[in-house]
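Recall from the previous chapter that SMILES is a line notation for molecules. Here it describes flavin-adenine dinucleotide.
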Amino acid sequence: MLDYIIVGFGLSGLSFVEQLEDNNKSYIVYEDFSQKSSRVAGGLYNPVILKRFTLAWQAFEQLKVAIPFYQNIQKKLQQPLISDLPVMRRFNSVEEQNSWFEACDKPILGQLLSPELIHNTTEGLDIPFHYGEVKCTGKIDIYTMLSSYIEYLKKKDAVINESFEYSKMLVKDKFVEYKGIKSKRVLFAEGYGMINNPFFNHLPIYGNKGEYIIIKCEALKLQKAIKSSVFIIPLGDDLYKVGATYANDDKTPEVTTAAREELQRKLNQFLTIPYKVVDQVAGIRPTVRDRRPLIGTHTDYQNIHVLNGLGSRGILIGPTIAKRLYNHIEKGASLNQEVDIKRFDANL
Ligand SMILES: Cc1cc2nc3c(=O)[nH]c(=O)nc-3n(C[C@H](O)[C@H](O)[C@H](O)COP(=O)(O)OP(=O)(O)OC[C@H]3O[C@@H](n4cnc5c(N)ncnc54)[C@H](O)[C@@H]3O)c2cc1C
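With both inputs in hand, we obtain:
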């Protein structure tokens, strides 16, 4: 009898598996690579909303959990995964500069925003109103982290690379049984794939498609991430990720010409030197109506759980929310209504 079956191994599944590893629980992961949100993500962590210069939801607390969490994984997998990457907000006007300075005077934001105007020194960028720098930012190499972790799971015989077929799961009082495997509990973490899950597809996940282009620009010697109408994120070897888009009306997994054109149009407003688009990626963010995670236990089945709804900022939120869910399931800790799936019970 296993302790857990985990369905889905993106950021959510990985965050929960780390809880199981820390607490010596046995588990098996099912992953079919049908969703790509985590694998295409920019991997940035940044506690500030750069549109309005406000603190992201519980970001300060999440940061304190997330950094040691990724450091542990880095050590366990013996792979460099975390890099300190400054995030520079390109100002569009003097008014924006003033809003930034106002935010700098606020208690927590003041610790996260640099109060000076920073002048651009990188050739090929048009930055007439200068930058503001966000502190405590960085990048997780999320693609490498997930691939290396899957290899680690393979060595432990703890992963099966196939689709979980919901209709084949038998739910008993004290355990679930799936294709001959018995487990005390099952955790679903399928991202936008949850729309196919009969146990949880009543939850209001609507999905938001995001695309990046990857450009090669040899003349651009940029070591920082820049946020303008799009992000430019340095990847090394003169490659940069540029994006992302936000589309609610398209749930197809393929990249689109419209997204590439939109990203290039925005990029061309401040990148003034030639570049080549060498790749493009797309994924569906598992976004929720109220923009909060979805965690908890099924109303009718005490051994069926869910971790989802990390539509954006999954890097920061995932470790904290997985820990809360684990403590809820294993130690009976109560869940805050803001994140508990029970907040949608009235809609059942
Ligand atoms: C373009 C883009 C850029 C982003 N940039 C950032 C960023 O810079 N920083 C940040 O913090 N966040 C970013 N995000 C958001 C971040 O990617 C999400 O918060 C996070 O990836 C959600 O992870 P998840 O594990 O919940 O979902 P997913 O990554 O979708 O993982 C779900 C997994 O479940 C698997 N699965 C589904 N159904 C089944 C089944 N039946 N059987 C087996 N396996 C199944 C899927 O294959 C998938 O691997 C970005 C998202 C996008 C799309």
